[in-house]
Design brief:
By secondary structure, the chain is an alpha/beta fold. The protein has helices spanning 82-85, 103-116, 129-141, 155-162, 175-189, 199-218, 235-249, 269-276, 302-311, 321-335, 341-355, 393-396; strands at residues 5-7, 13-14, 28-30, 75-77, 88-93, 121-125, 144-150, 167-171, 191-193, 226-230, 258-264, 315-319, 364-369. The strands form 3 sheets. A 6-stranded mixed sheet has the order 4-5-13-10-11-12, sandwiched between helices. A 4-stranded parallel sheet has the order 8-7-6-9, with helices on both faces. The model has no long low-confidence stretch (mean pLDDT 94). The structure holds pyridoxal-5'-phosphate and zinc ion. Zinc ion binds at residues 7, 9-10, 12, 22, 24, 26.
Amino acid sequence: MTTTLRCYDCGRSTADPTAQRCACGEPLWFDTDASAATFDWPAADPRTGIWGYDALLPASPPPSGLGATVGGTPLVRTPALDAFAGVRTYLKDEGRNPTGSFKDRGSAVAVAAALDRDVERVGTVSHGNMAMSTAAHAAGAGLDCVVFVPDDISADRLRNIAQFSPRIVRVDGDYGRLYREALALGRSRDIEFANSDSPLRTAGQKTTGLEICHAFAAAGETTPDAIVVPVSSGGHASATWKAVRELDAAGLLDRVPRLYFVQAAACAPIARAFERGDDAVAPVEKGETVAYSIANPDPPSGARALAAARETGGAILAVDDDEIRTAQQRLAIDAGVSVEASSGTCLAGARRLAERGDLDADETAVLVATGNGFKESIGGVDPDADLVALANLEAVL
Ligand SMILES: *Cc1c(COP(=O)(O)O)cnc(C)c1O
Ligand SMILES: [Zn+2]
């Protein structure tokens, strides 16, 4: 098991496994022994789930319960999306996790680590999916849970979280500050706060990238050219970078995939910093967008996401709500996959990248569909259903 934390930026390390941020201010992540021996690969099955990579994770695998059921999501070749995307597409369907998003990967590891450490309460700061996921995994492990949510959260999202009976606190105030206050509170009250880019969450969420590369290797195929991920806090983006770094260090990749991260134009602080050539991300005023799950105006791992895109030869871009809705509909109509609006950005982003020449038609891109659409009402669709008398059924078709 891996316990040393290191800063990706200044390289400082700490042996305190509960630390979250480096003295320089940047997020920490867990060091891993990335030798080929730690990966039982490609012999192992990439559909085993996150605990198939337990040698690379900072927590003990749960013997039973919800946490044992995370990951191992399908990676499917989706030729029907190629023409729209402008590239050979694969879909990594993260909506198949127990609470419908990749957040379960991080929640499972954070809860398992809390059990290892005899901590009785876990917590998070979230717009929705992460709160729901953390609450479900806490419930599954018999731990208490506290979630801080923004005051403008919708009643539907609140109900999704509340079904697992965590302590829910709606907070009126700056979301970036809330993230930092929660970490301080976690330390003083002995609560394991697994915020968006906490080291435990990042460790769990790197398994998306591990599974993607592993699946290509297991099928005897070349590592994909690109991975396209919706980005908000920068946690999952950073984790995907960590995954490809570890695999590359172990000599298991044909190439390092270019990492592309996509934001919604109405709230795109990381894309803006990327375009300006900045190394740090300045907070923005949050605009209205259908992509509610990716609207963090003050992303705590923004600088790390910038580094991830630049070092892999990728990019960070923003797409507007019309493009997001169109892509969301294409995923449903052409591939039969229901995603929430935020996740539509993976396909919308790929299309933009192909249009501007960053992706070629003969390249392979994995689009990470981060969350399923079952939890939110699907916008832009006017249900069109005929009413017929049972006796007239024959006449309809
Ligand atoms: C949380 C979330 C994201 C953004 O992930 P970050 O790690 O915050 O960048 C993207 N899509 C969905 C569905 C999410 O729930
Ligand atoms: Zn540092």
